[in-house]
Amino acid sequence: MDLGIAGKWALVCGASKGLGFGCAQALVREGVHVVLVARGVEALEAAVQKLLADPARPADTAVQHVAADITTAEGRAKVFEQRREFDIVVTNAGGPPPGDFRTWDREAWIKAVDANMLTPIELIKATVDGMAARGYGRIVNITSSAVKAPIDILGLSNGARSGLTGFVAGVARSSRLASANVTINNLLPGAFETDRLKVTMAGAAQKTGRPIEEIMDARRKTIPAQRFGTPEEFGAACAFLCSMHAGYIIGQNVLTDGGAYPGTY
């Protein structure tokens, strides 16, 4: 299927590895010019080289990068100094650490809200009006399946990402944006083979005193697919939401979790 987005420009956050890289890879393979953002310079440069060497990348597709902390005003300013207008924005920031809510102080909560709620809102605010003026825009927020099925040790993430979900539910349905072919949706990953999963599993292992391998095997068995997802298949889902075919998908929370969520709605 031709997704109809070749030649467009995308900003992909947290793109040096994991799910962010999977999204960047899928977009590049569709001929989208991509600006990758991440904090780690070495990992970011390695990701760029991997994308440039990808045989599925159309030869004229640009791959640029900015080493910055997108959760700060300075980091966002650095990104927009390199390029101001984007047709596609994939927001993504590392989730807060797992733990016991009794140990989190105000600073921990503010940091979580700033990264996982306020940063996506700032990126939306900075780009949607330009998208509307040009008649095309796709914003995909990488959040978490925990928005629909909260995990007790991920309270910081549960709270901050739920706040973003509520905000998106309203702004995405603005007729000013939706009628201008600008969509905003959330992509909710379940358990994927990423560093983030390993950190979460390590936290569960520490809390229960069980080996991490046992924790991971038990987690796989709770997933109907009986496996963890891959960044590549997550990226494919993201690319579709960014495509011309997804213009009627607005303000949705799209689960990609191997069937783990047990609810009807």
Could you please describe the fold and organization of this structure?
By secondary structure, the protein is α/β, with parallel strands linked by helices. It is 45% helix and 14% strand. It is built from 9 helices and 7 strands. A 7-stranded parallel sheet has the order 3-2-1-4-5-6-7, with helices on both faces. Strand 4, helix 4 and strand 5 form a beta-alpha-beta unit. The two termini are 29 Å apart. The mean pLDDT is 95.
Task: Offer a quick outline of the entry.
This protein is α/β, with parallel strands linked by helices and 265 residues long. The protein is built from 9 helices and 7 strands; from the N terminus they run βαβαβαβαβααβαααβ. 45% of the residues lie in helices and 14% in strands.
SSE layout and pairings?
Elements: E1 9-13, H1 18-29, E2 33-38, H2 41-52, E3 63-67, H3 73-82, E4 88-91, H4 106-134, E5 137-142, H5 155-171, H6 175-178, E6 182-189, H7 195-208, H8 212-221, H9 231-241, E7 253-256
Number of H/I helices = 9
Span between termini: 29 Å
Overall, the morphology is: globular
Q: How many E strands? A: 7
Give me the Rg, rounded: 18 Å
Strand percentage, roughly? 5-15%
| Secondary-structure element string | EHEHEHEHEHHEHHHE
Low-confidence stretches: none
Helix content range of the residues, please?
A: 40-55%
Give the neighbour order of strands across the main sheet.
3-2-1-4-5-6-7
Structural class: alpha/beta
The quaternary structure here is: single chain
